[in-house]
């Protein structure tokens, strides 16, 4: 019986077992679950072990958006169970393979249902109408499920409206391997009671009863007590019987390794920029003057886990590919939201999104990538945004705000009407300071004020127009900020790319040596030779195509690396940068 | 100033630290090497408490033993809000006393199982665990019906009382004695609520809760 049970839906909790900010400890057929309701109402059913050290996640912290393990603080996102932050590696974005196993969940009849591999939907139960039901207290019993199903067939109870009587006649209305439906009649009063027996383990079960009608106040309580008393008696009898019999061995659930989809590298394509996801524009709205916002929902399944600072490539109907930061707060995993500024000199990227793309349209996007990760071990974090540079910083500020970590968001814009995502900005309260209508000189002066007072352990994140970033980085350097504490993301690389050099590139891992002629990039030459690597902006701004340099002197032309990183000569952006030496050896 | 004769890993000592933290009472501690030193059975400690048990407090010369008794004393004397042990509410005082006795039952079962598993005491471990499960079933049922009636705490007051403090530590430490709380969802939710009381502090084996959802 239990062999096929993993394909059926079983109740694992009552809906009332899952208040906000709580983690319920469930078990089904020997497998433990950590079950938690996010603030958006989504019910997460996860393998009850942290991927790091195996500690039960049911003792973790549900912060409404993410579940945090008690042991070393790894955080996992609502819905996807993807890891969003590892405190011991504060400067890194966790690998996508760090995703906990999730199980399907459904709420029906006041109960939360799950299964390892359920087939179809939670079955309809005749006689139960959603919204009118009374869920009884779940009764855990140390006895096998089939024994309880047998006993429940002769369960006796009074209908709701004659709860104090004794004379009810009870008939068996339906029975299944894990369920029993009974109807009690006493005069004109009648009540249908459906029991679902949750097989916790081979010798442990929970009886979950649902009545076809709710009641109010004291009457409701007396009904609940009536059943609790009788079910407790049934439990005691069942446990006495089970104690006399040899206990069946506990079920040993199998713990799967990481899924194939996650453990393998994505397939090679003709070019490196893959649009592996299809999304629908669920909503398009004006986020500010000249800024359109798009909410992108998956056509099926869940969107991959993102972290604050992550961006996606949007593949536009006209063939262009553009990068946009995800502005979502933590745990907002139902959709991605992006903000797009209409560029006056648009080459067809922002103008297509503003003018052509409409609600209901399907877009192809890449998986999110995070080359702008947020540290959360800072004593104070400054976010300095210029214009549409707000987008990655808004996601970051929301994350720190939600965790109660100290931060300030300084938002430079021409005017109030240019401030995007007002509703989200308001939630940040005092952390937000707009700086409106400043001239370049005034902006420089204001940046000097904001960046004064560096103390060790502070971090600053910058995103905005190139000249503003240059100024801010320069000022930070003068005011004593170490380069490791200054994080920045450019919209685009405005450097004039000099691709006149020609050189040799040896790819150490691939055992291939290639000639890069003038006019072609390392990335292009690699792809021509069937060697793929991920890329995104392909102009030296986003950091996706970074490679490690083993030998040779890079000729940096990107805006992703900071000066110290460039001087060290250990990293290179293969989409724009070249070699000063005749030969480069890359760890590819 | 209150002096607490204290052992960090004792749930009964933690009860007092917890209430004193919630009430904002300043105190100092005298560590007693309960394990492995058995200092609670040493002559100097037996002079303070002939029962040879922790905790003991000394409040300006008043020496009191027994965790539950000390909770009563501290709440009676140092709670200006008069909510943790409301002296003028006989029915509530009756309820509180009933659950303080219940807490003693938790100590003699769940705490005993923990002493067996963690500090190698010789005792009937199966009986200790079975006894704890029997009590936890009763507490879970009580708390579940409390939730249905709109009551968050063990006693029928709109705020926590010393009954909650008395029962909390050894419930929360039960897994160190091999007693899972998986079958007691209402107890698990109540534990979250206790952890969110202002002034809550942790001890080894008792973890904090995250913030509640803003209303």
The greatest interface between two protein chains, and residues involved on each side, is: A-B, 30 and 20 residues
Radius of gyration of chain B: 17 Å
Morphology of chain B: globular
Tally of separate helices of chain B:
7
What does this structure look like?
- The complex is a heterodimer of chains A (588) and B (215).
- Chain A is an alpha+beta fold and 588 residues long.
- Chain A folds into 5 domains: 1-118, Rieske Iron-sulfur Protein, CATH 2.102.10.10; 124-251, START domain (Alpha-D-Glucose-1,6-Bisphosphate, Chain A, domain 4, 2-Layer Sandwich), CATH 3.30.530; 277-365, Elongation Factor Tu (Ef-tu), domain 3; 380-490, 3-Layer(aba) Sandwich (Rossmann fold), CATH 3.40.50; 503-586, Roll (Ubiquitin-like (UB roll)).
- Chain A is built from 10 helices and 35 strands.
- In chain A, strands 12, 13, 14, 15, 16 and 17 form a 6-stranded antiparallel beta sheet that branches. Chain A has a 6-stranded antiparallel beta sheet with strand order 21-20-23-18-19-22.
- In chain A, helix 7 (440-451) runs parallel beside helix 8 (466-478).
- The longest helix of chain A has 28 residues, at 217-244.
- Chain A starts with 9 loop residues before the first strand and ends with a strand.
- With 215 residues, chain B is an alpha+beta fold.
- Chain B has 2 domains: 2-78, Glutaredoxin; 90-195, Glutathione S-transferase Yfyf (Class Pi), Chain A, domain 2, CATH 1.20.1050.10.
- Chain B has 7 helices and 4 strands.
- Chain B has a 4-stranded mixed beta sheet, covered by helices on one side.
- In chain B, strand 3 and strand 4 (62-65) form a beta hairpin.
- In chain B, helix 4 (90-119) packs antiparallel against helix 5.
- The termini of chain B are far apart.
- The model of chain B has no long low-confidence stretch (mean pLDDT 97).
- The interface between A and B is medium-sized, with 30 and 20 residues.
């Amino acid at each position: 019986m239990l062999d096929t049970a993993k394909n059926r839906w079983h109740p694992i909790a009552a809906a009332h077992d899952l208040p906000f900010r709580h983690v319920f400890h469930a078990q089904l057929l020997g497998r433990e679950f950590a079950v938690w309701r996010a603030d958006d109402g989504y019910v997460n059913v996860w393998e009850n072990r942290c991927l790091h050290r195996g500690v039960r996640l049911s003792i973790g912290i549900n912060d409404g958006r993410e579940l945090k393990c008690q042991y070393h603080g790894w955080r996992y996102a609502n819905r996807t169970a993807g890891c969003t932050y590892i405190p011991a590696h504060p400067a890194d974005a966790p690998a996508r393979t760090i995703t906990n196993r999730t199980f399907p969940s459904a709420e029906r009849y006041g109960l939360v249902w799950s299964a390892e591999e359920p087939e179809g939907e939670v079955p309809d139960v005749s006689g139960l109408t959603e919204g009118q039901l009374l869920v009884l207290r779940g009764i855990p019993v140390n006895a096998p499920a089939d024994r309880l199903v047998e006993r429940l067939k002769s369960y006796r109870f009074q209908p709701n409206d004659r709860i104090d009587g004794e004379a009810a006649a009870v008939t068996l209305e339906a029975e299944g391997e894990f369920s029993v439906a009974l109807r009690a009649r006493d005069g004109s009063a009648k009540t249908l009671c459906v029991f679902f027996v949750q097989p916790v383990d081979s010798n442990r079960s929970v009886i979950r009863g649902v009545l076809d009608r709710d009641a109010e106040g004291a009457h409701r309580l007396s009904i609940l007590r009536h059943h609790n008393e009788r079910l407790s008696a049934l439990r005691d009898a069942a446990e006495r019987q089970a104690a006399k019999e040899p206990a069946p061995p506990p079920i040993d659930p199998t713990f799967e390794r990481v899924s194939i989809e996650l453990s393998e590298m994505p397939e090679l394509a003709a070019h490196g920029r893959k649009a592996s996801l299809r999304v629908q524009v669920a909503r398009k709205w004006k986020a500010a003057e000249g800024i359109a916002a798009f909410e992108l929902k998956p056509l099926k399944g869940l969107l991959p886990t993102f972290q604050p600072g992550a961006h996606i490539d949007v593949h536009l109907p006209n063939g262009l590919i553009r990068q946009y930061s995800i502005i979502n707060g933590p745990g907002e995993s139902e959709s991605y939201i992006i903000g797009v500024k209409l560029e006056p000199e648009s080459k067809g990227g922002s103008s297509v999104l503003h003018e052509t793309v409409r609600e209901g349209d399907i877009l192809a996007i890449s998986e999110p990538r995070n080359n702008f990760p947020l540290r959360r071990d800072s004593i104070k974090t400054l976010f300095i945004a210029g214009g549409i540079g707000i987008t990655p910083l808004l996601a970051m500020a929301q994350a720190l705000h939600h965790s109660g970590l100290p931060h300030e968001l300084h938002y430079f814009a021409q005017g109030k009407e240019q401030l995007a995502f007002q509703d989200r900005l308001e939630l940040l309260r005092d952390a937000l300071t707009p700086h409106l209508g400043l001239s370049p000189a005034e902006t420089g002066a204001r940046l000097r004020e904001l960046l004064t007072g560096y103390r060790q352990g502070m971090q600053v994140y910058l995103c905005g127009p190139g000249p503003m970033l240059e100024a801010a980085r320069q000022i930070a350097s003068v005011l004593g900020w170490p380069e490791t504490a200054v994080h920045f993301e450019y919209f685009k690389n405005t450097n004039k790319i000099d691709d006149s050099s020609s050189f040799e590139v040896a790819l150490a891992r691939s055992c291939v040596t290639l000639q890069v002629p003038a006019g072609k990039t390392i990335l292009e030459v690699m792809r021509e030779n069937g060697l793929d690597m991920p890329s995104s902006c392909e102009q030296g701004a986003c950091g996706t195509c970074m490679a490690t340099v083993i030998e040779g002197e890079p000729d940096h032309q990107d805006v992703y690396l900071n000066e110290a990183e460039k001087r060290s000569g250990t990293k290179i952006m293969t989409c724009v940068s070249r070699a000063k030496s005749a030969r480069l050896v890359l760890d590819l | 100033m209150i002096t607490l004769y204290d052992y960090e890993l004792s749930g009964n000592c933690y009860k007092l630290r917890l209430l004193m933290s919630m009430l904002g009472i300043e105190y100092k501690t005298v560590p007693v090497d309960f394990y492995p030193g058995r200092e609670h059975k040493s002559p100097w400690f037996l002079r303070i408490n002939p029962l040879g048990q922790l905790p003991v407090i000394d409040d300006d010369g008043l020496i009191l033993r027994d965790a539950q008794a000390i909770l009563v004393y501290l709440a009676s004397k140092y709670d200006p809000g008069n909510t943790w042990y409301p002296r003028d509410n006989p029915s509530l005082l009756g309820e509180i006393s009933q659950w303080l006795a219940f807490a003693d039952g938790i100590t003699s079962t769940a705490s005993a199982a923990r002493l067996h598993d963690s500090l190698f005491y010789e005792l009937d471990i199966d009986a200790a665990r079975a006894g704890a499960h029997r009590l936890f079933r009763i507490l879970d049922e009580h708390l579940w019906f409390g939730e249905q009636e709109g009551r968050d705490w063990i006693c029928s007051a709109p705020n926590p009382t010393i009954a909650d403090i008395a029962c909390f530590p050894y419930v929360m430490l039960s897994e160190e004695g091999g007693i899972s709380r998986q079958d007691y969802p209402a107890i698990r939710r109540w534990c979250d609520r206790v952890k969110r009381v202002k002034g809550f502090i942790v001890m080894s084996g008792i973890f904090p809760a995250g913030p509640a959802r803003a209303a």
